[in-house]
Structure formats: C-alpha cells, structure tokens
Amino acid sequence: MQNDPLSLDEIVRRVNAKAAEYCALSDRIWAMPELAFEEHRSVVEHIAMLEREGFRITTNVGGIATAFVAEFGEGGPIIGILGEYDALPDLAQVSGATELSSSTARGPGHGCGHNLLGSGSALAAVALKDAIASEGIEGTVRFYGCPAEEAGGGKAFMARAGAFDDLDAALCWHPAVVNEVLTKSSNAAKWARFSFTGRAAHAAADPHLGRSALDAVELMNVGVNYMREHIPSNARVHYAIINAGGEFPNVVQAYAESSYSIRSPSVQDAERVFARVQKIAEGAALMTETSVKVQITGGYSNLLPNKALYDVMYENMRRVG
Fold first, then answer.
1. Which of the four pLDDT bands, split at 50, 70 and 90, describes residue 159?
2. Cα 93 to Cα 49, 87, 100, 260, distances in angstroms
3. pLDDT, tens digit, for every residue of 165-192?
4. Which of 79, 54, 51 is nearest to 164 (CA)?
5. SS in 3 state form for the chain?
6. Which of the ends of the chain has fewer CB neighbours closer than 10 A, N or C?
7. How high is the mean pLDDT of the chain?
8. Cα first-last separation, the chain
9. What is the Cα 77 distance to its own chain's centre?
10. Domains, the chain, ranges and CATH?
C-alpha cells in the first residue's frame, strides 16, 4: 500500500544529508577533467556512487564507452535525470583561483561546470530513489550518464539508439549564477570537420607543382566570413584551424583541416547555413585544385520547451526557496 507523499521538508533533509558525498564527487571530477568521449575515469566515479545506492547499471549505451544508464524501481512512470561530466580543451585552472596563473599547464578543464552537473543530477536521482524505496512508490528513476555535451552530441547518439524512447519525462539542469527555470529554447547546432588534401612541393624550387591545402582552408574561412552578412542574424558560425599542414613554410602544405560549428534557433536554419558552408568548402577546393572531405562530428536539434514540466519545476523551486 502506498503511503502519504513525503513532505518537501523531508525530501530536502534527505538531500542535505548526502550533499557532502556528492560535493566530494564534484571535486574529484573537477580534478580529473576529460574531453568528449574520453570521460572514462569520470564515468567510473559516477557509477561507483550509484551502484552503492542500489542502482542497476547499463554501460556502453549506444555503443559509446562513456555513456551509461543507472536505473532504480519498477514500472511507470519512468523519470529520466540527465547528467554530464565532459570538460573543455585548454581551460585548465587552479581551484579557487580568480585569475589564470602563468604556471598553470595547458590542458582540459571544467570551464562550464560539468563537474557539478553530473554530481548534482546523480544526487537528484538518488533522492528520488530514496523516496521510491521508503514510500513504496511505483515508478522508475533513471540517471543518464551523457558524454560529450560540449562537442560531439553524445545525447544524439544515445537517442538514436533508443535510450530515451520509453521515458515519461526527462529533467536536466546546468550550473549558472542564478537559480532559475529556463522556459526558452536553445540553439540547434551542427559540427563538422573539413579536411583538404593537395600536393606537396618545395615552395621555393617548384611552387608551381604544389597544391596548397592550407590555402584552401584559408580561402574557405574568407568565404564564410563574407557569407555572414547574408545569413539570419541569430545564426552563429565559428571555426578553428586544427591542422595547418606542418611547421615548415618552405613546403607547400599537402594536408590541412578546419573544424566548424554552426548554430541557429531552428535545426532547419542550421542545416541551411551548413549547406552554404559546405558549398564554400567545395569552392575553396576548386580554386586551389585540392580535394575536400567533410565529416559530420556531431549535432543537436533545438530544445523544445515543455511548459507543463517547467511550471511544476518553478513551483517546487519557489517552495524550497
């Protein structure tokens, strides 16, 4: 027989009783920043915490080594809570420092708070698990360990594998400077790598025999920058040269690569902008007599807001204070 619902005060008390454990988890994840799809130690830490709480663990979700699901309970409703733990490149930091130290080595770091995101979501899942167990509530809570949110679209691959198909609701959060319920959408995004192949030659003796892949990368970037005037004002296009073709200027670069990120409020606009970027890449290859290979490295659709859920979330945040 199902008991009366837990009071909000009791739920808060239970969360606070375990808060120190999950703050310590956050600190450990901060100290071991791992990039997209490489979050192996972070996954081990999260799984260890959730296994101790009695969750059933499924690893390698969607064929991704750093994606997992932790589940507790039986039947419906099935509530998903999403957690992330990936870091960003070149954002290595010293904990507690307000300025970048010249002695800090370059490397990955948690510049977006995902050390908090995974641990906070895990504690939320544990609090719901405790309620299911102690009150005899029918239903299932799932914690989704989601890799590569910053770049790579880990959730998209998990969704393609059907990981979210039977959920009744999915909840997530992100660290910020205020506590709020986001009621708006977020941008769709698409990421791609453009790899140009040309022909090497001695840049002084036989430059006419070379076909510069680096020239193609640079011309592509120039073309994209001219395109900016003619795309929706709320679209965003960013790029980085990730392989400039070598360190020696006296050799015509036979291979060079750039990485592109396209964002827009709708997935349709993002696709349209990306199609134009791809044409510019093909034009750059044509101008330089090189070839280009396009590899889609990730993407997200725009978020579809759920008013019923965010109204409930706002009311409960207001009650907690």
1. very high
2. 26, 12, 7, 26
3. 999 999 999 988 888 898 888 899 999 9
4. 79
5. CCCCCCCHHHHHHHHHHHHHHHHHHHHHHHHCCCCCCCCHHHHHHHHHHHHHCCCEEEECHHHCCCCEEEEEEECCCEEEEEEECCCECCCCCCCCCCCCCCCCCCCCECCCCHHHHHHHHHHHHHHHHHHHHHHCCCEEEEEEEECCCCCCCHHHHHHHCCCCCCCCEEECCCCCCCCCCCCCCCCEEEEEEEEEECECCECCCCHHHCECHHHHHHHHHHHHHHHHHHCCCCCEEEEEEEECCCCCCCECCCEEEEEEEEEECCHHHHHHHHHHHHHHHHHHHHHHCCEEEEEEEEEECCCCCCHHHHHHHHHHHHHHC
6. N
7. 92
8. 32
9. 27
10. 8-184+305-320 (3.40.630.10), 188-300 (3.30.70.360)
Q: How far apart are CA 253 and CA 245, in angstroms?
A: 5
Rg (alpha carbons) of the chain, rounded to whole number: 24
Q: Which residue has the higher pLDDT, 97 or 22?
A: 22
Residues in the chain: 321
> Using CA atoms, how far apart are residues 236 and 53, in angstroms rounded to an integer?
43
The residue among 290, 274, 271, 192 whose CA lies nearest residue 227 is 274
Residue type, 98: T
**According to the model, what pLDDT value does residue 142 have?**
98
